[in-house]
Amino acid sequence: IRSQSKEEPSLKKAPQKPIRPLLLSLVIGMTLLSAFTSQCYASPSPSDDAWNPIVSNLYYEVWWFDAQTENGEFICCVIAVMGNIEKNATARIDLIIWTADGGIDKVTWFYPFSKFRASAEKLDISVEDSFARETPPFYEVFLSNGTVSCYIHYTAEMPPWKKPKPRPDSYGDWIVIVPKGKVSGWYNMAGKQHEITGIGYHDHMYCLTPVVDGYVGLPNMWGRILGERTVVAFGKAPANYKPVAVFFPDNVYEPDRVIMEIDNYSLKIVGYGENVVIYLKLAISRQCLIYRAKAWEAYRGLISAEGYILTKTFKRHLKGEGIIYFALAV
Predict the structure, then answer these.
(1) How far apart are CA 92 and CA 86, in angstroms?
(2) How far, rounded to the nearest angstrom, does the alpha carbon of residue 132 sit from its chain's CA centroid?
(3) Which of 43, 63, 117, 305 to pair with 127, CA 20 to 30 A apart?
């Protein structure tokens, strides 16, 4: 289970200009609309964190939970379902722990779709002994394969956010259920139990995505940064879908224009406008390979971020840490 992973995406294999995660930087500049308008903010309902199935070979749905502990650990818990639910769908569970001593513990296990149970009314899903449930503002996730286990309880500190759909009748959504919350719990690895106390994040995504070698489509990227008073969540998915959201304790902003570019050792996300701009530079470290296929590779890693948010009335320094997922063609 223990992996002091030093694998990096090959610079020669990148489809565009190469990326090296240990040196990767991310620059974000964007125009932000005023918050809590009909264009920027839509309050989720309990059903938004529930199961949203569709019969399609392109179906993909994932519930993501993570935590940053007071002693410097990062923990990632994922429950996902992919494929045709009437034929060959698979449930996947991921547990990754970046330990305070620099190690990486990662476990992945697969189940046939018949082992998956879920509610279409609220977050109440299970795969064998593993589950995720809600009683807002409280959420909990438990992962176990009989040997390794992890339990995290969330108390939301920021309101949820739902990105409005481009078309109301389109299938797919990305909902940040807990932008930031207090977390407590434990994980058991190699027969030793460790306590969890800190802050965390939870979101939910479902979509139809091109399938490459039985997994998600390309290009694909997702990340989030937790700061003292702010949270930034961003992504890049097929069909040029590039959501970015910036959360404050009493407000949430979404940019109206976002441009993402890969250039040698950096990834740039740039937006511009008259009212508000945010600039962030992110560095990736301690990446680990989570999937390798003939045509592509997927990684998760840690990120540190620093930058500014600028408006006509204030300039605020942003600083935080987080987790990133990215998949590259090879």
Answers:
(1) 17
(2) 16
(3) 43
What is the model's pLDDT at position 217? 54
- Please give the pLDDT value at position 10: 38
More confident residue, 277 or 237: 277
Gap between the Cα atoms of 311 and 300, Å rounded: 33
What is the pairing mode between strands 25-32 and 266-270? parallel
- Count of other CB atoms within 10 angstroms of residue 213: 11
Q: Give the count of alpha carbons within 13 A of 12, CB side only.
A: 0
- The answer to whether the beta carbons of residues 318 and 278 sit under 8 Å apart is yes
Neighbour tally for 265: CB within 10 Å: 15
Report the C-alpha gap between 98 and 189 in whole angstroms. Answer: 12
| DSSP reduced 3-state for 47 | helix
Model confidence pTM above 0.90 = no
- Preceding omega of 219 cis (within 30 degrees of 0): yes
| Sequential DSSP letters for 112-137 | EGGGEEE-SSSSEEEETTEEEEEETT
The pLDDT value given to residue 271: 59
Alpha-carbon distances of 207 from 32, 86, 239, 250, rounded to whole Å: 25, 17, 11, 29
pLDDT tens, residue by residue, 17-47 = 333 433 333 333 333 333 333 234 456 677 8
Q: Which residue has the tokens 């320094």?
A: 317
